[in-house]
## 1
Amino acid sequence: MIPILAVISSYLVLSFSAPCLSQYIAAFSESEIDSRIQDINTKGLKVKVLSEKIDPILFNDLMPESHSLHEGRLMKILGDRFDSFWTSVNTPHNLGYETEVSYDPKLEIFLDSLNITEIRGQPISFEMKRLIQNWLVNKATCKISYYWEDLGNLFWPRFIKKTICVNTNSESCSWPPGMKCGLSGPMKIHHLRWTCFESEEPLYHQRRKRANNLHKANNKKQKKRQVLSFWSPDKRKKQLKRLIRQTSLWKKGFQCEWRISDLSVSSTCECACRQF
């Protein structure tokens, strides 16, 4: 059996921010603590443990190393939680804004149910009815813009897709005027967060070092095991722990590992009554 850390004595919070990019590292107990701070590639780096400054050199030792960024293992940790639409492992081809119409088909169904046949007591043609319906649909349709945010190498996948309502404040989306376009359709997307905490060297690291020395040649020949959808929850849990250990890092009294987290994003823009 591989022992599990019994006590987490304190938590390490490393945080930073860069122009146009945001990076942050979270420390976990039962709940997660978010922290956005300053730049990974600039001077003036702030590194704190429980609000006390420590040697910035330690920061470089705790960043994910090559074995911690093994794409195959990280993909297996996320499993079916990985969402290729909202996240990207590699740099997206288009980092700018992509705008499209957030069309709601229920609008046309609603307008058809109104059965518009006359205006001010005067009958209208079918063509005029369609013209009015199309105008109302276009008026009430909001535009949504997508852009990619780079969260840095403390997250995996590091690129997250965000949304913006294009015509939020420019004009009303209703007739009579009064309603505005706004973000809606909140959803959770999952990713991995690099988490560090103070700890003595775990026993499984010592055992792994001895095993690597004794069986290095044999380990290279072993085939990689795949995540099978029909695996039992217990087997999946054991494999998840093993993958997290394989990608973890221990240096200078700190243990770092990937942990599954979620991020809330808005998937659509809709016309509704809002207060600005």
## 2
Amino acid sequence: MTLDLETQIRRVADVAFDQTEPVQHPGGRVELDRMSDDDGSRRRRSSWIALVAASVLAVVALSAVALTRRADDSEEPGSVDTLDFAQGFSVRAMLAEIPLAGVDPAANTFVAGTDLARLAGLAGVERTAASDPLTDPTAWVDLAFSDRTVAIANSTLFSASVTAPGEFREELGFDFLDVDRYITAWVDVLDGADSSERSYSLDVFALGAGVDELAAAAGDDRVIDVGDGDDGEINPESVSAVRPIGRPLRVGVDPTGPVVAATRSTPFVNEWLTPDRASLADVADLLEAATQLDAVDELYSAQVASFSRDASDVEFDRIEGVSASDIVIDEAFTTVGIGWSGVGETRSTTIVYVFADDGAAARSVEPIERVLAPDAPLATTAADVTTVGQRFMLDAVSTVGRSVIVTGRTPADVNAADVAQLFSRSGPISAHR
């Protein structure tokens, strides 16, 4: 097994095993039901890693048809100014898929997505699977899951579609080759909202083909219940590779897209299905970040996160190599967007800081240049990674209105998606005084 693919398998296994918020969630929260690290849990995790490896080895060997089936890769690369995620990829469209009702956008918000069709088009590869991606991977499998220079959104459900394609198709009715683009999101529930959850998660999949069978199964309410039990209930009797701790999923089906959304919350999926509803695209700071990212050519993957970044809340004694004196950004900000564009020699990473006004953005250019300089200290738990230059190579810092726009790229030996981790721990890059 190659080191790169083994690392990918372990990362996918870690996410899918927990079936909860990602390890690098921007708010730093940990679900109460996250598996413990006792001996039993480690044995279960080892078994799960073995299952993932076996599943990846036979990713689409379940069907001879799946070896050549692919979604339409005819989409032209380039930014799309649209609020319709079914029709094209844009960060505004990503935000528009996430309902605002019952959500507290002033708290923790995280939205990420990837346009697989655009990525394949940029790289000039067909989206085909392989019977054995370890010994004979197709160009698409290798690009999406082994190429360090490519960043795809870390979605638990999308990972399961790759590692357990049979069970995923059985439960949700499609697999990863059907997905043109996808979104994964976590938002905090508004205090007083009618919900048993303290946060909502939502995964949205724009498919390259119709969903007639799914629509028929969903019926008039357009919702399919996957698994048994109430919202958020852990049911050991209803465990699957898609739902390792047995929580049921509510799957909304919009056959006109076709678009499918999956969440643990019945009210949230019903709100997603509601026409002309308010969405995160109506939140000014999130929309500002999206607008700047959508101006980037060849954008294929992006994330927008918003949460408190006040350094006074940071416990610096728990962060290796960083102190309060390293925080040099004076102007307050909560929202940061990250976009990945291009492949090969044209690859680039764009970071957007959103401030209160144009003046605050202008005053923040110099301190942002300082915290992203090659020798600037980095908040990390990795003992061999101490400076920003080991994770991100800065090209330029500029302003557009009230946003500071940073461009650069990751070193060739660093996973492109790891740029997001610079903002998942409180430190000079991700906090203000």
## 3
Amino acid sequence: MIAQQHKSLLRFLTCGSVDDGKSTLIGRLLHDTRQIYEDQLSSLHNDSKRHGTQGEKLDLALLVDGLQAEREQGITIDVAYRYFSTEKRKFIIADTPGHEQYTRNMATGASTCELAILLIDARKGVLDQTRRHSFISTLLGIKHLVVAINKMDLVDYSERRSPVFVKII
């Protein structure tokens, strides 16, 4: 317990436009680092059958999209925070909404963060909301920005698309 208290804490958020994969990225991170309890995993299997958007697969976005309206609409509305730790560090992740009408919620989630992961859908590229989230992150003093191009499998892992996004941002 004492060792846990002395670990440094990193607060970060996922941001970007709607459907860029923010909630799924967090769900994948939690799943792959075994931060999900058995009862949560069982519940996730059931929820994926009822509300999932991945067919028969596990819908990892549902780990953070907990509001009924979020599950019914398949979107993030409010900021969802998840905590996890490793041997060396503690983390608090803020999953923020990508829809324009919920930009205020994104700013709330970003307000305490030190790092932002800005997701870009490889098919859609940099959108107005992508730029807006980048600007808000900078405005709030977030000095560390990771640009992650997501869904590369849907463009056959075409590397020539990547530099275009970085130049636009």
## 4
Amino acid sequence: MRGSLLSARRFSLSIVVLAALAPWLLPSLGCSGTLEGKGDRDGSASTKDGGGKPVEDSSVGLDGSLGKACFNRDDCDEGQLCLGGICQPNPCLTENPCGDDDRCDAACVALVDPCAGVDCPEDNTCVDGECIAGCLPVTCRGVNCPDGEYCDRSSGQCAALSPCEAECGAGNACHYECIPPNPCDVVSCDESQFCVGGECLDNPCFGITCNAGSFCVNGVCTETCNCDPDCPAGKACVVGECKCIPTCKADAACGEDNGCGGKCFGSCEEDGFSCNPKNNKCECAPQCEGKACGDPDGCGGKCKPSCGAGKVCDVDKAACVCAPSCPGAGSVTCGQDIVNTCPDESCSGKGTKCPGGQKCENNTCVCNPSCPGAGSVTCGAAIQNTCPGENCNGTGTKCPGGQQCSNGMCVCKPSCPSAGSVTCGEAIQNTCQGANCPGSGTKCPGGQTCNNGACCTPSCPPDLACGQSVSNGCGGTCNGSKCDQSGYECKNKECVCKPVCLPGAKCGDSDGCGGECVGSCSTGFTCAEDKDDKGDYECVAKICDGGCPCGKTCSLGECVPIVCGGGKPVCGCGVCCPAGQSCVGGACVPDIQ
């Protein structure tokens, strides 16, 4: 089984770039290509859920049972994730550290640099401990993080580890990921498209395969190792640009020059000191493990450990004391003192809690005056206050259907039906006796019109020429519309050429009358009238004046936020990495199996 799983050595690098790089480019750029790698079974190079390297058909799980080998979550049963190349129980089903709105996920992350000590041949890059063809950025190269942290490949910075229970192999650990809601989670796009902000956009690189070490940008294969002129000493060609490569080694000293104007994270010579990953400086590391509240921390301060529920560490008293807390006034009975949770502490003010319909006034619960709406009280009846002794203004206006309140009495509400609902010539009757309606009815059978109180059938000559007008015999007019010349129509009593733009017509096609059609254009372009030649239409790029800021892309002439599917963060300034790839130094690179 292992031989068949590891037989394929090529996988596809498909990078989706979504940034308005220049006004003449499409509002979205697609990237894809081919890089050399190891251990890919089907060309997908997918490591969803932190799948990791493939293993034999079965492996030993955390509880000693055998687990099934996998490449992604689709290989595993329901309730399992592919972690470390083994189908294991989904940690999110037993513990969920995420909020109600976020989705819990888990992945295996590297605790040490897997490329430490790996030398790759020219025009190759070490990614996850494997040499692959291409000159790609690797953000976590030479980064060593302190205990409890790992290097986030999307930023190249040390981040806090949120540990979960799973077997990830030596040098790796299971890490919880909280993924925020994404409009693309409920969108299904064609394989030739990708989703941005809930909208499916065409991928111009769909179906394009590039040579090893290159990838597609906007339908064109781009060499990652092509830098002209060659890069000077101390720099390397990365995705076609000369970049400074940090020289930090695994045994580097904290604060050592990284060769690119920065400092290395590393070890500190002085006992009790550790390297602060935020500034790469040796700083005194407080030693408070197993020490009591107020004990010296070894750095000139005092230890402040957790004291349990309801207590805090008071370093001045060197003891855990009650944590003062004052409940809200609305949770304490009206007029009663607000009592602190700690006996020796006090709270200001008094409670304001009262039963429904009452309010706290001068530390006493009293009726809360309220006047119901006039429309809920019978017409003419006085509006009663909910509190005795309190008054309300006015009287009610509530009446049965078809009636209205007038001078304290319910009376018929006058209403006149429409003329079109009353027979032609008949008087329109009001719904209330004694009330009148103006006019008479106009209702006639189909094909007839009401003329002088009688139904009449109008008649017009069938071949009346355009521009001619005659009586229709019922008080109306017949207007001619016939044009003898083919391709002409009657407009404003004149025969004029009738433009024809069939469905599917291209922008600028002739309309047969000396004009041009407003037709279709290629993806990313729109049909617009020539400013210098009115009536002429041409395809122009949909652009955003001034370009779009980082993190947004130009779509249909507007800058919209880039939102990656599956809860993935935007890579660099505007990249959404597809399944099986991760953000490394602002570019998507394949996960190595």
